[in-house]
Predict the 3D structure of the following.
Amino acid sequence: MGGREKAPAAICRKVAEVENGGTIEIWGDGTAIRSYTYIDDMIEGIFLLMQSDLEGPVNIGCPQYVTVAELVSTVAEVAGKRIYIRNIEGPVGVQSRNFSNERIYSIGWRANYYLRDGIAQTYPWVASQVEVQRALELKERL
C-alpha cells in the first residue's frame, strides 16, 4: 500500500483515507477505460489453464469495461461515502484496452466477480489497513 498498489487498491486506499464528502486526486480526466479481474477469478483461470491442453497465449480477464471515474464511484458506493474527484496531470496509460477471452472461455472459465463484487471484497481489507497505519502513526507521535 501507500502508492505502490494497482488502481483498484489505490482508489480503495484513497477513499478510505478521505472523510465523507472529501476529494481524491486521479491522474487524467477519468475517462480511460479498464477491465479489472478479481484475484479469485484469475487463480481459477490459471488453474484451469494448467489443466488444459491449450498452448500459447491466453487472456484471462473480466469482460466488464469501466472508466477510472466509474471505478472511483464504485469504491465510494461500497464505502458509503460521497467522494469528489480532482483530475490532475499524470500518466494515464493507454485510453482503452481490448482483449479476447475466447480461448479461456473454451475451457469453461468465466469471471464470477465483476467490479462491484471485487471492490466489496477488497475495500474492507484496505480500509482496515488504513486504520492500522493511522493507529501506528498516532502511536509514534505520542
